[in-house]
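hey all, quick one before standup. I had two proteins in the batch that finished overnight and I want to keep them in one place so we stop losing track of which output belongs to which input. First protein below, input sequence then structure tokens straight from the run.
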Amino acid sequence: MNEEAQHNIPDIVNQVDLPVYFVIGKFDYMTSVNAAKNYYDSLEAPVKEFIIFEESAHYPQFEEKEKFTVWLNKTFNELLNGAFES
């Protein structure tokens, strides 16, 4: 049995104390958007964001490099400027 089946993250982690970002490609068939969204909805975190890249599968950081870089820089700058402090 593989490790993922033995240790299902949604059953183990239901709360984190830091910002959480779910970044997923619309055409990702390794991790379905619906499964990821269900976990996202159940997860407690001070800041959460669910980002879907419309032209990607499992690797939006490579498949939509420019859009991913813009999102990453924007998010990083917001964190640096304290926009998400609770």
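OK second protein, same deal, sequence then tokens:
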Amino acid sequence: METYSLLREFADSWMLLALFTFFMGVIVFVMRPGSTKTYDKVADIPFRHEDKPAAKSSDAKEA
């Protein structure tokens, strides 16, 4: 059996199953209970300092 045929057969069967399982795992992980609070915080990052600029960090050196 040629290498191409062997790899093609593997990709069409077991790799397809493995990638589908990984995809479903990611979907379940994202939709799990309790994750809404985390995603709401992350979604608000661009608007965190809407009224005033962010405070200067003590680590930043002034030029």
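Flagging for whoever picks this up: The two ends are 67 Å apart (CA to CA). Residues 11 and 37 are 38 Å apart (CA to CA).
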